[in-house]
Each structure stands twice: as C-alpha cells, then as structure tokens.
Amino acid sequence: MSVPLLKIGVVLSTMAMITNWMSQTLPSLVGLNTTKLTAAQGGYPDRSIGVLPANPEESWQVYSSAQDSEGRCVCTVVAPQQTMCSRDARTKQLRQLLEKVQNMTQSIQVLDQRTQRDLQYVVKMEDQLRGLETKFRQVEENHKQNIAKQYKAIKAKMAELRPLIPVLEEYKADARLVQQFKEEVQNLTASLGLLQQEMGAYDYDDLHSRVVSLEERLRACMQKLACGKLTGISDAITIKTSGSRFGSWMTDPLAPEGDTRVWYMDGYHNNRFVREYKSMADFMTSDNFTSHRLPHPWSGTGQVVYNGSIYFNKFQSNMIIKFDFKTSTMSKSQRLDNAGFSNTYHYAWGGHSDIDLMVDEGGLWAVYATNQNAGNIVISKLHPITLHIIQSWTTNHPRRSAGESFMICGTLYVTNGYSGGTKVYYAYHTNSSTYEYIDIVLQNKYSHISMLDYNPRDRALYAWNNGHQVLYNVTLFHVIRSEQL
Ligand SMILES: *[C@@H]1O[C@H](CO)[C@@H](O)[C@H](O)[C@H]1NC(C)=O
Ligand SMILES: *[C@@H]1O[C@H](CO)[C@@H](O)[C@H](O)[C@H]1NC(C)=O
Ligand SMILES: *[C@@H]1O[C@H](CO)[C@@H](O)[C@H](O)[C@H]1NC(C)=O
Ligand SMILES: *[C@@H]1O[C@H](CO)[C@@H](O)[C@H](O)[C@H]1NC(C)=O
Ligand SMILES: *[C@@H]1O[C@H](CO)[C@@H](O)[C@H](O)[C@H]1NC(C)=O
Ligand SMILES: *[C@@H]1O[C@H](CO)[C@@H](O)[C@H](O)[C@H]1NC(C)=O
Ligand SMILES: *[C@@H]1O[C@H](CO)[C@@H](O)[C@H](O)[C@H]1NC(C)=O
C-alpha cells in the first residue's frame, strides 16, 4: 500500500500588490519590454492574466509572477492609459474611486484564482486523507496481529497527517471569504459604473467608506492567507557583532515603507538608552547612531518597537511602559496584573527576563508567568494604546524551562534552551487554545541566545546571540500539496 506523501509547499504566503512598477520593474519581471505589454495574450504562459479585455488602452492587466525567492506571489497591476480628461473635480474623484475598486477587483481575482486552484489540491488531499484513514482502520481490524510492524509505520504516518485536517478546514473558510469579497466588489464596481454615467446624486462619503472597509477586509483576508504554521527556520545570518552577551535589537514591523531604522538595547538591566540606527545598512556598517533616554531602566530583553513606540518592562516591576520615540514621551504605563518579575519567572537564561513583549501579524502580546498558573507561561494579547489585557491564555509550559519564545500568527513557539543545540519544541495555538510538541532546529551559532523575536514584516526572527545580532528566515506553510509516490 502506498501512502500519499505530503509534500508541503509554500503556495500562497503573501500576496504583494506592486502598483507603481509599470515602467521599470515589470519588464524585467516578465522578461519583456514595456512597449509590448498591451499585447497581453500569448508570450508569458500561465503567468499573465489580462482582465477586463476591452480596449487595451483602457483595460486593466494583472501579472502574477512565478513565486519569488520567498515564495510570495507577486502581482503587478498595469493601469490603463489615461485617456479621459477630467471635467471637474468630482469626476476626477469618482474616477479615482472607481480606479481603486478596479485595482482591488484585479487583486481579488488573482487571489481568487489562486485560491480556487489551491483549494482543489486541498479538497483532493483531504479526501485522500480521510479515505486512507478509513481504509486503514478496516485493515487494522481485519489483521489485528498481522504484520504489526508495517501497520505501526503507517499508523505513525497517519498521526503525522491528522493535524493537517484543521488547517485544511481553515483554508476552505478563506476561500469562501474571498468569494464574498469578489461579489461585494463586483457590486460596488457596477454601482460605481452607473454613477459615473449619471454623475448626479451620489454620496462620496458613503462610497468612500465602503471602499475603505472593503480594503480593510481585503487586507485582513490577505494577511490571514499569509499566515501559517512554522515549519522551518533558516540558518542564522550574522548582521553585526557588538555589545555584551545579553541584549535585544529589532526593527518596527509597522514602520512606513522605506523606514528600516534599527533599534538596539544592550544589556538586560540598569540601562535606559536605546540606540537608533538610521537603516539596516547603517547598522551593519557603522557605529553611527542616536540615543533615546527612556524614563526608566528596562528589565530583561523583551522590549518591542511597534508603530513608532517602544514597549518595555520597567526594571524590578511588572509595569509595562510605552514610550513614543517621535515625541520622546511616555504615552502609557500599565501594570501587567499578577505577572512575576525580578527573576521570579525568567527564561532559562535568567536576566530578569520575566516579561517578554512581542508583536505578530495580530498585534501586541505579553508572555510571562503567574503564581496562579503555577509559574507556567501565560500569554496575553494587549491593547497597543491602553496596554490593557484583551485576552489571556494559560499554558502548561513552565516559564523557567523555556529558552526563549516568539509569536507567529497567534501561535507561541518556545525553544528548549538558550545554549548548545537549540530547537523550537513547543507550540501553543491561541486560536484553538491547544498545544503540541514540534521539532524545528534553531541554529545557535554563538551558543547563548538571550533574545528571540519574530518580525511579521520581514518574516524573520531577530536574535541576540552572545554579542552577535543575527537573523533567521522562517518558513510558514499554509497550503498543502499532495504528491503520490
Ligand atoms: C523595447 O523594444 C523596442 C522595440 O521592440 C526597442 O527598440 C527598445 O530598445 C526596447 N527597450 C528596452 C529597454 O529593451
Ligand atoms: C491603482 O493602481 C495604479 C497602478 O497600477 C495606481 O497608479 C493608482 O494610484 C491606483 N489607484 C488607486 C485609487 O489606488
Ligand atoms: C450584490 O447586488 C445584488 C443585487 O443588487 C444583491 O442581491 C446582493 O446581495 C449584493 N451582494 C453583496 C455581497 O452586496
Ligand atoms: C551619522 O549620521 C548622521 C545623521 O544620521 C549623518 O549626518 C552623518 O553623516 C553620519 N556619519 C557617518 C560617519 O556616517
Ligand atoms: C499606528 O499609529 C498611528 C498614529 O501614529 C495610528 O493612526 C495607527 O492606527 C496605528 N496603527 C496601529 C496598528 O496601531
Ligand atoms: C490554529 O493555528 C494553528 C497554526 O497556525 C493551526 O495548526 C491550527 O489548525 C489552528 N486551529 C484552529 C482551530 O484554527
Ligand atoms: C532571507 O531570505 C531572503 C530572500 O531569499 C535573503 O535575501 C536573506 O538573506 C535571507 N535571510 C536570512 C537570514 O537567511
């Protein structure tokens, strides 16, 4: 009996819409020269989808490239040539609105196409899985004592496959969501088209807010599709060698495009100066930085910079402080109730690392422990402005035997230690309040990891490894492809 071997592939990790690439990047992307672009069909098999095939001058075209090196689907939208001249400001405004919706329509269609295709894999594989399980059960009953070893092997395989089923379920839900967006946008496009003809009574505010809300939902949907389960961590790349054995460094996942400022904090206590490097390149090549003095010294290495502010644990307390770099003011401080501090429930390496703040696709989190939870890890989702706890999860993992932890897509990943051979071995899913043991190697290049955090923008792990600042890429899987052997 041959067992379908699951080959999991990065299919739809992130959908990136790159709008202003028309003249420079697009030709190299599709290997063609701009002047030929309007002749959409032919030429680039499977990769280009000409949409709204009216007059090429006015049509919109979407190019969905092969996956890039990070497994992303890169979509390029080519705008029609500007032909109409605007009659008045309102015409222009309406046209922009329509354009926006059309832009969205294109991206949704591409998303939808991919989703449909991937869904076919998913459904097929799901059937196979379920079929295999049933068959196996029958066979098992019929041959209770027979060729036990062989069955054991198949059974192990089954156990391996079973957790994939909920992932598939979730995927199907995503596909439905995309379908719904598609309808909504089609409706909106239609009504905008009518309005454009009539140019009479319409309410910009209403239209605008509908567009904005659709955009938000689309973004949320894409983000969801971009999420997945951690299945691999690349080897470490050393970015810089500086500072003491303990510290933390990061970039802001919500920084505006082009802002790659690096934030750097040496040591785990008795320091309140945060270094700001202008860019990642500057950080790598120079020691040119500006310093920000925090109102209090920090504790541990669990700081995080998020949307222009640093969030940190005040030394010898369970206070969380939000400090805005732009205005150099403490915009909020709030006690994290019941959280142990001052080396009560530290990570295995010590260093007053009782409260670890982090950010993932879903927002701001605190990872700590309480007496109430017997020193086991507690995860709290925090409101980024009020610092109030939105929701908490109690795990069964002792805080002190965790090496470090980081959050990706609502799942907390915990390492087994800070020195020697290190791996990520425990995962707690806040979506389902369940945990599992996993086994993902984490290269510990310099033998002492005192900080490890995920950055959802870079899809990278930032680590402080014994006075070295290192980065790891992560592989997240969302869609599953099956391959028969
Ligand atoms: C684009 O194609 C035209 C004609 O096919 C050619 O004259 C021109 O040099 C090309 N431009 C580039 C940048 O390759
Ligand atoms: C639509 O996409 C084009 C690029 O293809 C861009 O120039 C334009 O600003 C976008 N329109 C809106 C309203 O976002
Ligand atoms: C789209 O429009 C049709 C007819 O106007 C309506 O029945 C349908 O509910 C609309 N769909 C959405 C998602 O708004
Ligand atoms: C250091 O940074 C400042 C401002 O960011 C800049 O003016 C200066 O030229 C830089 N110096 C060096 C040596 O890179
Ligand atoms: C980021 O900060 C800006 C203001 O500085 C605010 O408008 C925006 O909502 C914030 N975003 C998030 C996700 O907190
Ligand atoms: C929760 O998320 C994890 C990983 O992201 C996934 O494996 C699991 O199936 C999800 N569970 C539910 C109930 O959505
Ligand atoms: C992560 O992947 C990108 C793109 O492939 C690559 O440029 C970068 O060097 C990688 N970083 C690490 C830490 O492996």
From TrEMBL:
Q: Which PROSITE patterns match?
A: OLF
One Gene Ontology cellular component: extracellular space
How far does the signal peptide extend, from start to end residue?
1-16
Q: What start-end ranges are recorded for coiled-coil regions in this protein? A: 94-142, 178-224
Concerning InterPro entries, the annotation shows:
Noelin_dom (IPR022082), Olfac-like_dom (IPR003112), Olfactomedin-like_domain (IPR050605), Quino_amine_DH_bsu (IPR011044)
**Location relative to the cell:** Secreted; Synapse
Under which name does UniProt file this protein? Olfactomedin 1b
